[in-house]
Every structure is written in C-alpha cells, then in structure tokens.
Amino acid sequence: MTVLKTFDKIEADIVTVTRREKSDRLSARVRLRFRLSDQQDEDVGEMFVSIELIEKESYRWRRTKRQIIDTAWEWLDGYFDGASLGFEGENLFSDILDGKHRLSYCGLTQEEEHSLQQELLKIEREVAV
Q1: Residue 52 CB neighbour total at 10 angstroms
Q2: CA separation for the pair 15, 28 (Å, rounded)
Q3: What does DSSP assign to residue 4?
Q4: pLDDT at 122
Q5: What is the pTM of this model?
Q6: Which side of the chain, N or C, has fewer Cβ within a 10 Å radius?
Q7: Which domain of life is it from (predicted)?
C-alpha cells in the first residue's frame, strides 16, 4: 500500500509551553510551516497547533521538545487526512459529513459549505500549478 504524502515539513517552532501545577499534563502551542506536496510554487503554509502531552517533570527538555514537535506534525497529518478536530468545527478535508443539515453563518448547509470548500481547494491547487 502506498501512502500519499500530503505536505512537506519546512519548520516547526514551539511558541509556548505550559505545565499544569501538580500534574504531568503539558500544553504547547506550535507554529508549523509546510508546503503542500502537489503545489508547484514556493508558497509556504503556516498553521498554529495546540497540543497536550503527558510528560514527567523530570524528563529532559530535548526529549520533550522533540515529542511536542512530533505530536504537532502528527496532528497536521491527521488534519489533512480528514481527522476530527475534537470540537464542533467541521474539518474541511473530511469526506464524512454527519448528516445534520445545520445552517452555517453564511446560510449554507454543512454539505453545501463542504462542497464549496472542496471546489475552492481544487481551484486553488489548479492555479498553483
């Protein structure tokens, strides 16, 4: 089975790290810079990702930093594969609609909005080529 690569990693910067008191839970905000794999031009995408990890306070920073960055890239990979965002928002890359025809803020059903976003993404990629 061949795995299609959705994006090329360019850079990851940890913006903030917060450790909760009396807990091994760590929250981090990471800026990811990437280029879509099928894009011909040199445009670079950027996304800020918030993640949480369970990390013992005694662990070394280099290992923790590597784990934060790896988790952020995994999240972005899942996002482009259509993974759930974990809240009410619809992942535009998801092919699965929940069947509820709620209206969005612009008066479209989720299905119509998803279709429109897919068309816009297709046009954007065609223009980039």
Answers
A1: 13
A2: 7
A3: P
A4: 83
A5: 0.60
A6: N
A7: Bacteria
